[in-house]
TrEMBL record:
It comes from the Bacteria. Gene3D superfamilies: MFS general substrate transporter like domains. Keywords: Membrane, Transmembrane, Transmembrane helix. InterPro entries: MFS (IPR011701), MFS_trans_sf (IPR036259). One of its GO terms (molecular function) is transmembrane transporter activity. Coiled coil: none annotated. This is MFS transporter. The chain crosses the membrane at residues 21-44, 56-76, 83-102, 108-126, 147-167, 179-199, 219-246, 258-274, 286-304, 310-335, 356-375, 381-398. The keyword Membrane applies. The keyword Transmembrane helix applies.
Length: 430
């Protein structure tokens, strides 16, 4: 066992300096992700008991993200990518402060906090996606995303349970509110540490300065349709566990425990899939994740009780990382191909990709809100996830077409890698 662990550690150490720094930066920041994704939604539920406000908060976040992607493209002309990446991480703490300072959770305050969090996510993801594509290649991307997902899943064991226990250990609304304030302070400290780690990397800005285009290769439009289906679930799936658990299971303690159950098994599975799978295995990995998600969502819709919610959360713990593990390398591979064909910088595609995600997020969140206001809250919680999960199964067929077309038109590997080397050399000379 120790020999195996030593071998895996040696494999990590054999990666490039920037590869290791990016993984370590994201590992530190991952400590606050469960707080942002789960417990902010739980805070809104606790103080308003209104699931529509949670979804509206999520919509505000997703509106801020594409706007910040555009802003980030402009800022990259003047600021080093490390500064923008770090600012994105630290803004997440600012958003939480805004939320905790609201005396009443009205729609205006929730929207401001959500937009601020969207700014944070936009700066974080825009720069993280570019760095991921610039420091990896198609051969080690499964490993990169498998390693990251393994780290995130392990953190998902400890953080939700610890925070849930911490909040539940307090008695009275005042003490529980103070607990959220303490958590917000810890988030600030962690984001500062993540920023310091980031500055150890030798990350360079994109050389090409034009990022906005309106016509693309047909392969890219297929990827945008796949992004729309991915965004469909993101529309409210991030906060759906919090809403379900508050309505069905109870409070934050149950939330933390439910999120932690099964995470160890999921982490091990994801790591080894990422470590040893090949690019040709991505469709199988993607399909497995989508099918598990659909099974859990349909079970939740059929039974809508404590058992079905727990099973859904367990399946989601495995399904979501499986989907991400396959989706991101597919996305970056397509960017490699079309950027080479169209002679454009990668960031132009990272920026445009967000439009596909945003459309899907609007449709996903809109589905929930329509069911909520037209029929009922319980109906929306019960069936919206199942509807979206079944629609997402279309992604299996789209991804197969993307990979088949990509393989048929892909330039030779050296032709793709050489421009990257030249771009990095040019960046170092600037």
């Amino acid at each position: 066992m120790l020999k195996k662990l030593s071998s895996e550690f040696s494999h990590f150490r054999s990666q490039s300096h920037n590869f290791k720094i990016l993984v370590l930066t994201n590992m530190v920041y991952a400590l606050v992700q469960p707080v942002i994704d789960i417990f902010v939604a739980a805070y809104i539920m606790r103080n308003s008991d209104d699931t529509s406000k949670v979804v509206i908060y999520q919509l505000a976040i997703y509106t801020g993200i594409p706007l910040t992607f555009l802003l980030n493209g402009f800022l990259l002309k003047y600021f080093n990518i490390r500064k923008l990446y770090s600012t994105g991480m630290m803004l997440s703490g600012v958003s939480m402060v805004i939320m905790m300072s609201l005396k009443t959770l009205d729609l205006t305050g929730i929207a401001i906090a959500g937009i601020t969090m969207g700014l944070s996510f936009g700066l974080y993801w825009a720069n993280r996606d570019y760095l991921a594509i610039s420091i990896t290649n198609d051969e080690n991307r499964n490993y990169y995303y498998g390693l990251e997902t393994f780290i995130y899943t392990i953190i998902a064991i400890a953080v939700p349970a610890t925070i849930g226990w911490f909040i539940q250990s307090k008695t009275g609304e005042s003490e529980k509110h103070n607990a959220y304030l303490i958590i917000t302070g810890v988030v600030f400290i962690i984001t500062m540490i993540a920023s310091m780690v980031c500055f150890r990397g030798k990350f360079e800005n994109p050389v090409q300065k034009k990022y906005i285009f309106f016509k693309f290769h047909p392969l890219w439009y297929k990827l945008l349709s796949l992004a729309m289906f991915k965004g469909l679930a993101q529309g409210f799936l991030v906060t759906a566990p919090a809403m379900l658990i508050f309505k069905i299971l109870g409070e934050e303690g149950a939330l933390g425990n439910a999120q932690s159950i099964g995470a160890i098994l999921a982490a091990i599975i994801i790591y080894f899939i990422g470590r040893f799978s090949k690019p040709s295995d991505r469709i199988k990995t993607f399909s497995a994740g989508l099918i598990l998600f659909a099974l859990g969502a349909c079970l939740n819709g059929a039974l809508f009780d404590q058992t079905s919610v727990i099973i859904f959360l367990l399946l989601l713990l495995i399904a979501k990382p499986l989907m991400d593990l396959a989706y991101y390398p597919i996305q970056l591979r397509v960017i490699d191909i079309v950027s080479h064909i169209e002679k454009r910088g990668e960031f132009a595609y990272i920026l445009n990709h967000e439009s596909g995600l945003y459309l899907g997020r609007l449709l996903g969140a809109g589905t929930f809100l329509v069911l909520y206001f037209v029929i009922s809250e319980d109906f929306a919680l019960r069936y919206a996830i199942g509807i979206i999960a079944l629609l997402q199964l279309c992604s299996i067929f789209i991804s197969k077409k993307i990979i088949a077309q990509g393989n048929s038109i892909a330039p030779e590997k050296n032709d793709i890698e050489e421009p990257k080397v030249l771009e990095e050399t040019a960046a170092n000379l600037v």
